[in-house]
Amino acid sequence: MKKILPVILVLLLIFSSCIHRQSINNNLPNNTTSNENINNQNQTDNKPKDNENTSKEDNQSTDETKEKVTDNEEEPSNEQTKDDINVNAPNLSNKEIDFGPPPIKDHKPQYMPKEIVELFKKYDAYYLGDTSKKEIYLTFDEGYENGYTSKILDILKEKNVKAAFFVTRPYILQNKELIKRMVEEGHIVANHSSTHPSMPQKALDFEKFKKEFEDTEVAFKEVTGQDMPKFFRPPMGKYSELSLYYTQKLGYKTIFWSFAHKDWLVNEQPPVETTIQRVLDRFHNGEIMLLHAVSKSNTEALPTIIDKLQEMGYEFKPLTALP
Fold first, then answer.
1. Which residues are catalytically annotated?
2. Which range among 77-81, 197-201, 230-234, 251-255 shows the weakest confidence by mean pLDDT?
3. Of 58, 126, 144, 229, which sits with the fewest C-beta atoms within 10 Å of its C-beta?
4. Where are the alpha helices (DSSP H) in 27-95?
5. How far, in whole angstroms, is CA 84 from its chain's centroid?
6. Is 319 exposed, middle or buried (0-12, 13-18, 19+ CB in 10 A)?
7. How wide is the angle at C-alpha 193 spanned by C-alphas 283 and 141, nearest 5°?
8. Residues 232-255, mean pLDDT to the nearest whole number
């Protein structure tokens, strides 16, 4: 009996332990062992407490990004803003080009490459009028006064001819009475820039480019009380596609020429007869004639030039008549 009692006690302990282990296993989900459950619980406890908030912030950021993408896909407004002027600018060439068609003597317009003709048409730039009509556009460039403009105005008034005077800001400020007279007698006073620069160089900075126009406009309005006509002659005939584009966006037509001669060197003036002959050798339909008002020879030749061309049936037209 003494030997049997210890055996019974051992069996009872083993049985009790099995029951306890079975109870624990029955309470674990999906038959997971206790060790696995403990390990999983430890991993969960080691995660950052703000993990849930981080996830929410990530989702919110993703939603905002989607909204921004959607907003960017909206079509732009048709209304032009100031910044619209620069939209196509980076794609345009700013290579400086010197305008200067070679002179000819058969009374036909100078040859211009097709790509230049198309470029001018695209940006409202003219070097020629209607070649089917006997019309001439008389223009003068005025960088400074050399004492001849008053006489030129007298001649134009006597001949009943209207012309265009391209003037700079300093010219306007220094010759206010002449500017007023030009306007009063029906001539076009147009923009030749404020400081007479190369416009492609100014086109590197649109604000500086625009200032060349606006400063001249302001001076003109202060003197005349009127808005300046929207015609522009690039100083020295220098241009680029970008400068033509900017000029157009500012509301201007660019005016080059189909006739000019070496008349601007005041100390190297050709004889009057030479000036007359040059004009008569090269006149043509739709001609835009460029003369410099600082020229003594031009001033003295002007009455004969006008008479001769009118005798041949040519009519002097204002720039507003350009096609």
1. 141, 292
2. 77-81
3. 58
4. 34-45, 51-72
5. 9
6. buried
7. 30
8. 98
